[in-house]
Write a structure and sequence with these properties.
- The chain has 97 residues and is mainly alpha-helical.
- The protein has one domain.
- It is built from 1 helix and no strands.
- The longest helix has 87 residues.
- The radius of gyration is 41 Å and the shape is rod-shaped.
Length: 97
Amino acid sequence: MDERCNDCRPAVQCESLKEEIAILKEKVSKLETNTAVNEEQTKMIFKILTEIKESIADINNTIQTIKEKPATRWESLITTIIMVAVSITVTFFITNK
C-alpha cells in the first residue's frame, strides 16, 4: 500500500476486505475438504449397508433351507415307504404265482 494511504479510510477498508477474503478462502477450502470427506464416508456407509443387505439375504436363504429340510426329509421318508410297499407287493405276487 502507498504511504499516502496509511490513514486513508478506503485503504483501511480495502485491507480489512483483503483479510476477510483470505479468511473466507480458508473457510471455503475447509468446507470443500469436509465435503469430500463426507462424500467418501457416505459412499462407505452405502457400501457397508449393501454388504449387510446381502448378508441378510444369505441368512434368510439359509433359514429357508433349514425350515424346508424337515419337509424334504418327510417327503423322502414317504417316498421310501411307498417304494418298499410296492416292492413287497410285487415280490409277494411274483413269489405266489
